[in-house]
Amino acid sequence: MAFKVYVDGQEGTTGLRLFEYLEGRADIELLRIDSALRKDPDERARLLNAADVAFLCLPDAASREAAAMVDNPDTCLIDASTAFRVADDWVYGLPELEAGQRERIRASKRIANVGCHASAFILAVRPLVDAGLLPADYPVSATSLTGYSGGGKSMIADYQADTEGRLQAPRAYALGLEHKHLPEMQRYTGLTRAPIFVPTVGPFLKGLAVTVPLQMSHLKPGTDVGALYEALRQRYAGEPFIRVHAPDDPAGLDGGFFDVQGSNDTNRVDLFLFGNGERQCVIARLDNLGKGAAGAAVQNMNVHLGIDETTGLTAG
Ligand SMILES: NC(=O)C1=CN([C@@H]2O[C@H](COP(=O)(O)OP(=O)(O)OC[C@H]3O[C@@H](n4cnc5c(N)ncnc54)[C@H](OP(=O)(O)O)[C@@H]3O)[C@@H](O)[C@H]2O)C=CC1
Ligand SMILES: CC(=O)N[C@@H](CCC(=O)OP(=O)(O)O)C(=O)O
């Protein structure tokens, strides 16, 4: 029997991408809302409660509303928004976070899908903290370069309407240093304070790379790039969607420049180390619509349902 799946927000950027993943899967029966009724609370409530798994691909406020509409104890919600990522009664939807996370995702009916920048940041930093190489009180900073689809329908429309080239230069944002992903970045890395985080959006549809610079002299004494690499490699051994590259791997570069789009159309996260004996940077790269959003949501659904985690997804 097929699992009934509903996507609330089916006409948004993440919702459309989810449909691409789910259409054609024989083990899924997609419940579709009539487009004209897609914001009708009664119809949304009916479908949410009819679903085994309902994805919320909505702004935060609409996600909170949708969650409150569900009274069927068997409906599992996977929320793509920021609304519940650090809520104690929701499980953080990052299977690779730590031992036991898959079991928590399997057991919970409330799964908060990760933020795109946050998932890259956490996957780069957490193993280094856990291994004791990066002190939890290190003053971490990070930058992110992201495609404009990260901003949803309205940002996509702005870029596509930009005939005069006004948006062709990269644009740093969240300069108040309070990006909405900071709480999850801090909580799930174990850092004692939030990182200084500056994202930049560029004139390309999708692809994201978070860069975390590290002063080697401020890591655990004796830490070299080999130790950083080993910590990442050992932590992610056997993970189907995480690829840890050897230090200075030229595969990350295109003519000497980092290729931010190199994980696109996959559910893969690529982890790179570049630098020298004194300074290193860890770069985590993913497709913001794939492992950063819809791909991660499908992976969480697979884990929750107890089916092969890679079903319908590709590591590239
Ligand atoms: N884009 C990305 O890379 C990522 C996005 N996210 C998060 O996922 C969520 C969805 O983002 P995204 O797809 O980019 O956003 P979009 O703006 O592209 O889509 C949001 C959708 O929600 C619909 N919607 C808004 N309010 C309601 C409501 N009250 N009831 C029903 N539907 C409603 C909109 O309807 P309408 O069609 O009328 O506009 C739209 O289709 C957000 O919380 C976002 O932060 C998370 C990770 C990455
Ligand atoms: C380019 C752009 O604006 N990107 C979005 C990130 C998209 C995302 O991951 O948002 P969620 O927290 O809802 O998951 C931003 O930085 O706010």
Structure, briefly:
The chain has helices at residues 13-22, 41-50, 60-69, 101-107, 116-130, 152-160, 182-189, 225-235, 290-305; strands spanning 3-8, 28-31, 53-56, 76-79, 91-93, 110-113, 141-146, 171-172, 196-201, 208-215, 242-244, 253-254, 257-258, 269-275, 279-286. Helix content is 30%, strand content 22%. The chain is an alpha/beta fold and 316 residues long.
How are the SSEs ordered, and which strands pair?
Layout: E1 3-8, H1 13-22, E2 28-31, H2 41-50, E3 53-56, H3 60-69, E4 76-79, E5 91-93, H4 101-107, E6 110-113, H5 116-130, E7 141-146, H6 152-160, E8 171-172, H7 182-189, E9 196-201, E10 208-215, H8 225-235, E11 242-244, E12 253-254, E13 257-258, E14 269-275, E15 279-286, H9 290-305
Parallel strand pairs: 1-2, 1-3, 3-4, 4-6, 5-6, 7-9, 11-14
Antiparallel strand pairs: 7-10, 8-9, 10-15, 12-13, 14-15
Helix pairs in contact: 1-9, 4-9, 5-7
Bound molecules: NADPH dihydro-nicotinamide-adenine-dinucleotide phosphate and N-acetyl-L-glutamyl 5-phosphate.
